[in-house]
Amino acid sequence: MTVGVRGPVLRLAPLPLLALLLLPPAAGAEDPLEARVLAAKDKVFPALVHIVNVEEGFALGRRQKSVSTGSGFLVDEKGHIVTNYHVAGEGKLLVVTLASKKEVEAKLVAGDPFTDLAVLKVDPAAAFAGGKPVFATFGDSSGLEEGDFVVAMGSPLSLSRSVSFGIISCRERTLDSLQVAGHETGKYNTWLQTDAAINPGNSGGPLVNLAGEVVGVNTRAALLANNIGFAIPSNVVRDVVEALLREGRVPRSDIGVRLQPLGALEHTLLASAESGALVAGVDFGSPAARAGVLPGDVILSLDGEPFAARFVEQLPGLYARIARLKAGSEARLSLRRGTERMEVAVVPEPLGTGLVAESEVAAWGITVRAITPRMRLEMALPEESGVLVTGVRAGSPAATRLEDGDILREIDGVEVRGLAQFLDVIGKAKSPVRIAFRRGAVIDVTVLREVK
Amino acid sequence: MGGRGGLIALLLLAGTVSAQDLADRIWVLRITTERSSFGAPSRQTLLAPAVPVEDGLLLAVGFALEPTTEKDEALRVTAIDPSGRIVPAELVGGDDDLRCTIVRLVGARPEPVVLEGAPRRAGDEVVLLSRHGEVMRFAVRRMATRIEAAVEAPRALYALPADAQSFQGAIATTPEGRLVGFVDLRPTVAEGLGIMLGIGPQTAVVVPAETYADVPKALPRKDRPRGWLGVNLAPFDADHEAYFGIETPVDGAFVTGVAEGSPADRAGIRLHDVVQSIGDLPLRFERMDDWDPLLRAVQRLPLGKPLPCRVLRFERLPDGGYDAKAFEVALTLEARPLDFADAPETEIEDLGFRVKPLTQDWRRSNRVPGDLEGVVITRLERASAAQLGGLEPGDLVLKVDGRATPDADALRKALADARAAKRTKIVFFVRRGPVTTFLTVQPS
Fold this sequence. Notes:
Chain A is mostly beta strands and 452 residues long. Chain A contains 8 helices and 30 strands. Chain A is flat, with a radius of gyration of 25 Å.
């Protein structure tokens, strides 16, 4: 069985420092491969950008700003730039350095944390400066094979406009899930693995074939490894970017099943000779749960089309098919349970988001975040509502009374139903404020006195 | 390290003190633990001073040891009497809260020492008797805070100079030979590192002897079930009083959780009630410091007999304030349910793993929904069939080959049937964190 890369996988966050080693220039040789690499580079290089991002984060109970850098590339004449969500998806101030070395401000158009992609926009007049618009075009990532030559471009360790060269090491890799902004990334796609050097700061940069087409977006690298980098395949990127430009988001549906490939379970009671996908878990209260789907069921088909995974690499495709179902309209699942076959109808829901704003309550010294149904599921929270404390500032009124992970349930006797309502309630509350909160199995009350 | 002058009195080798009398009654425990961790044997020996208490029992302070139930672990105890003679002994048990251990002598019943400490004040002298027969004299530097001691003692604690640190577990007496207590230092997380950097424990603390007075009767623990209410309690402090708008302070413990079906639940105690008394026991809980004595007192209450329990309940008024109502309920304490640490472990030898039952405390701390039943994997042998199949410690085994495994017997039965059916792969359905997954194990 092929498995995802185990162990730590690094998000390609940038590093600001690097010692440079000066080497004598290599003698130029006319060789056909070099010529092809040069030609490919020339096609995409003018569209390559360096991104500096001022991000707002929350740490230790207060709002904080941080700066990071990454890579990206122009994809149309309107000035749209593709990069990673983890580079720019939550940016407050984005400055892009173009091939001309000109710095322009960019705006975030939309982002999709589930695939770790984001689209930015720069003013085309400024970007192209009256000249011919230069942008990269996407190639077909499904045609790639292990051994194909590829060129990676970007700003490793913030060293902008760097180019590295290698091959596709694996065209269909699955990775252990990694959280980006509270989302599992990679659930809906496999990854291209390459040995073209990718380092922190390469994130969001293009992986280019020798035809000069973008076949992937460099996103991750294995930690403590040599040249094991991962890129999002261009076919996934193209679909996501189209959706983001069209409606500002990627519409996805969910039925609340977690799947497992049948390969490892062959010759067991669960998997007979036929193909299908095993239901490993059913989310509480999900459409699948309502339809009576149980863990251990084998899904044989979805809306009449075969639905099968023997290997883990096939799961992202199945999740993507579920994601493409129309929310609110019935889909038919054909199941096998033990020796029995059955048909059930599920009504998919829009995919829940864990992407919720964090806020600071400066007077109390805490940061809070709304609780989404998805978070509730993952944290096994019994609460239907409330807001989650994400940080407590030392020395603040909340410092000895509240902790990270506490769930605020009531303010002055008013049930907390969501972040906006919570902020509204505390806006009107007078010191001392009465708070009921959950901490693990404990539901306690306390009083906060604001420091004026 | 070393303390500053002033309060620190002379440090002198005491060969002639009358504490010699008690020193002549000090035993030494030699406890050897042999452990084979998946094939690699290791042995550790501990020497500890001990005093004879009632019925041929010895008490040692500073560590809590339980008889081992592990197959690959052996614990041997021998006692050395004051004259240096070796006497066979067996481990009775330890008290984690008080960090002490009781050992039963085989064929010896020395005269017991009464566990009552002579009170001391700053400047008073105490004599420490160590396991090596060392006798050292120190002056009490000051009264210690509870934070400095390893255990919560109901009475005053005595801080000694830092030089007394090497006397962990030592017996403290007055110069006249009257028992004072036992030295027990609060272990810090990085004690070794702390000592290296000179920021380790700066003080040796003597815990008064009466702290341990109940231990000889209370152990072995299994003979005497502890009373259990089934609630989480918090101090009812000034913040709580402010929350409910109470102007005159109220004594009691604030209920921050009620376990479903527990004695408290059945008595009608609800979340955010204040429990003021149970039977004759008033529940004073103002600071976390009160917790330990309170817990001990509750655990000593009689079981299986209805006790009147005074409860204060706050009802919300339309204006947002609260109205307090006092009433009485009948509360019948039960024995505390088995917790995960004490639960028996079952070994599944051929597949190379061990399980424990899904206890209430494990269920709570791992947020396992009430409708799930299973057994919890505690350990896996390296390269065993179970480990190769992907099982991990902490997995909750829900089903084996489609059959529910609510307890170790059901698990054994399901595995026996799978073997009888000559299955080459056995399917485990487990819950790991919040998700469930299927794993296959191939019996060798």
